[in-house]
Write a structure and sequence with these properties.
five-stranded mixed β-sheet; Dna Ligase, domain 1; globular; 15 helices; about 400 residues; DNA polymerase, domain 1; four-stranded antiparallel β-sheet; alpha+beta
């Protein structure tokens, strides 16, 4: 789509999305995998899912989040590769370093995609389309990877556009409102963020299949079908209207870890031991982020795929292994599962960056405050030991 009719400066947002990122890194670093269906994730006969797959594998119907056993059924000739997150994060850092050359206004959505506001970079690097071309060229020449880019007046349109011509595509959205309407009209309604399976089925039941159908539907009818808030959002996005700005800082609202057992676990002691390790790992992440958390969360999934989630507050915002493991143990004891466990997870939320203040007392320091401070100090000392001796250094049972 040519940007010739765009108003000056109207094209300002890029959405850059790396193509099959993990699989592409594997194919780049291992020449024998190039041109072959690469599936990154759990092994073909293991309990687990596909993280990413190459475009060669996608031709067989394989996609991310699919159970690996199903992926093997669809593509038995696929090459299953375990994830190497250190290598992928190294490549991601180099991708984001390229973004930073062109604008400081970068909002990372994950390790392989980001929004960029390039409205202030025109004098240095040219218009938004020129910058998009330069970024794609830098990624290809320096990293031997490909990225697809959407260029648009706003975030919704840029993200939608980046997915239209994958892989290695550049899609430019027009800026005139009538041209935007025509650009969106033939696309499926499911291209709008938030239109998932349930809402999509509701819309189809009323004959609404494309974004153009939404454009022609009165907002009051949409409100009857899917509620006033969803209707308003659908109507705005169907005409390409989105006022959100690129946010350079995204505060993480929770930190969590979970584990799927290779075989449904029937031993409560084994579930508890794994949960405590997850709690310690979450505590290390919270300390590394310089935060304290107010609430602990437990997640259990049983062999019949029923998911149990529970939470409880800490006595005071905490970041130490002891408090997290105590909370995990108490949550598990209060919610014993009656069936074998498929997945266990632990997380925390309600962050603050300042340590909790000691409660004033007429009778001197509160022993619980002193104990919390000692636990935190010991946990940080363990971090230092782990950095020298490895992550295998662990606390004993609480």
């Amino acid at each position: 789509m040519s940007p010739a009719s765009a108003a000056p400066g109207a094209l300002r947002i890029l959405h850059v999305d790396m193509d099959a990122f993990f699989a592409s890194v594997e194919q780049r670093d291992r020449p024998e995998l190039r041109g072959r269906p690469v599936i990154v994730g759990a092994g073909p006969h293991e309990r687990g899912v596909v993280s990413t797959c190459s475009y060669e594998a996608r031709k067989f119907g394989v996609h991310s989040a699919m159970p690996s056993r199903e992926a093997f059924r669809l593509c038995p000739q696929g090459v299953f590769v375990p994830p190497d997150m250190d290598r992928y994060m190294e490549a991601s850092a180099k991708v984001f370093a390229i973004f930073d050359r062109y604008t400081p206004l970068v909002q990372g959505l994950s390790c392989d995609e980001a929004f960029l506001d390039v409205s202030g970079a025109a004098l240095l690097f040219g218009d938004a389309v020129s910058i998009a071309r330069r970024i794609r060229s830098d990624i290809a020449s320096e990293l031997r990877l490909t990225a697809s880019v959407g260029v648009a007046p706003n975030k919704f349109l840029a993200k939608l556009a980046s997915d239209l011509n994958k892989p290695d595509g550049l899609t430019v959205v027009p800026t005139d409102p009538e041209q935007i309407r025509d650009f969106l009209a033939p696309l499926p309604a499911t291209r709008i963020f938030g239109v998932g399976r349930v809402l999509g089925e509701t819309l189809r039941a009323h004959g609404v299949k494309t974004i153009g159908d939404i454009q022609k539907t009165h907002p009051s009818a949409l409100a009857r079908w899917c509620g006033p808030a969803a209707a308003e959002a659908l109507h705005e996005l169907a005409f390409g209207r989105d006022s959100r700005s690129v946010e350079t800082e995204r505060e993480e609202k929770s930190i969590s870890r979970e584990h799927t057992f290779p075989v449904d676990e029937k031993d409560p002691a084994a579930v508890r031991a794994l949960l405590l390790e997850l709690a310690s790992d979450v505590a290390r992440q919270v300390r590394a982020a310089g935060r304290f958390a107010a609430t602990a969360h437990l997640k259990l999934r049983t062999d019949d795929f029923r998911t149990i989630t529970r939470q409880r507050p800490f006595e005071r915002p905490a970041c130490d292994d002891f408090a997290y493991r105590d909370a995990a143990s108490a949550l598990l004891a209060a919610n014993p599962a009656s069936r074998p466990i498929r997945l266990v997870g632990f997380g925390v939320s309600g962050f603050t960056e300042t340590p909790p203040a000691a409660a004033p007392s007429l009778f001197g320091p509160d022993p619980s405050d002193e104990r919390a401070e000692k636990r935190e100090a010991l946990s940080r000392a363990l971090d230092g030991i782990r950095s020298r001796l490895g992550a295998s250094v662990r606390l004993g049972p609480p």
